[in-house]
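To the structural biology subgroup,

Please find below the input and predicted structure for Putative cytokinin dehydrogenase 3-like, which we are adding to the shared reference set this quarter. The sequence is reproduced verbatim from the submission form. If anyone notices a discrepancy with their own records, reply to this email rather than editing the shared folder directly, so we keep one authoritative version.
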Amino acid sequence: IMHQSPPNNWRSSFFPLSDQSRITSLSTKHGIIYSLEVVKYYNDLNADTIDEELQVLLKGLDFLHGFIFKKDVSFVDFLNRVRSGELKLQSKGLWDVPHPWLNLFVPKSRIMDFNAGAFINIIHKQNKTTGPILVYPMHHNKWDDRMSAVIPDEDTFYNIGLLHSSGVNDWEVLDEQNKEILQFCDKAGIKAKQYLPHYRTKEEWMNHFDSKWDIFQQRKAQFDPKMILSPGQRIFNSF
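Predicted structure (tokenized):
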């Protein structure tokens, strides 16, 4: 959470309205707050012990006490939690606006460098971000390497989601910020990979796929030799 962004957003609504002023004061003081979301599923069999189970989960964490917020919802409501936020934004005319998002996979070994260079020195310093910023840890062995998606070559990496929202006329400002973050990663030698990237040249796509390029090219020749599918991505045809 950045000091310029509201504590509650369309992505998460765990923070009670009565505590938002405290959260805002905390983000104003520190500039950035790192908020950890924990989901614990339960049913009728363990409903009586769920609070104790949560205490065990949180026991080893280091955080500011007094800033634990809980919300008990049904499984369906949890899965559909973004919908309520969407409806609120739609009613204010703030949903159907440009969303210059950037999704990156960042290797665990460089996450602190990314934090210092991107979160602090670019996003926080420029004070432009208004949407949620999400960070998910992921395990390499949970991904099937036969897929075309490209992930860092480390056992653990992070999915960074910069879910920007902008006005109709100022989306380019956030788009430029995204480019600056990518340039920082490149100069710092952080081997981050974009999820659903947009490149303009074959060379850029080759660099993106890296060691997967040869097999990706072979599959294209095998299953789409006439290059009919997905011409808009400009992977095998240039502008």
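Summary notes: The chain has a mean pLDDT of 89. The chain has two domains: 1-95, 97-197.

Regards,
Lab coordination
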